[in-house]
């Protein structure tokens, strides 16, 4: 488990040329969607972009309700397993402390780390997922949500968080409208 990169200090311009070109194209797509799309469309566009950049089997977006200490699902790629509107408490957990409170990306690299951190690890595993990247989204310094991508074990690293973090930030204003507290 890592301490989570500080996504405000990402040097995306130092990426390999092809990755930088893909990232710049993706940033343009997400910026346009953030300006004109409804929340579901924006999150769907982000899911598509993330699939191309780092891949995933499950993609969700959560909005944070700080008053009730809950993370509520507002987008999902798998509504049967993870329906929109689902909520989970995050206070007192390692994930909550890292991503939702401290605002640092959280990476679980394998089944062992998923089991330790996610109460729903059996469902996650049943979907073929063994790694998770949870990227916090901040608005005026406060975490208002997270973008969560899951895939097979050892799928994600700090460099993936560096790719996805700035793109997830385009959802900040939308998640701030949805988030409570």
TrEMBL record:
Residue ranges of every copy of the GAF domain listed in the record: 42-175
A Pfam family per the record: GAF_2
Domain of life according to the entry: Bacteria
SUPFAM superfamilies: GAF domain-like (SSF55781)
InterPro entries per record: GAF, GAF-like_dom_sf
Record-given protein name: GAF domain-containing protein
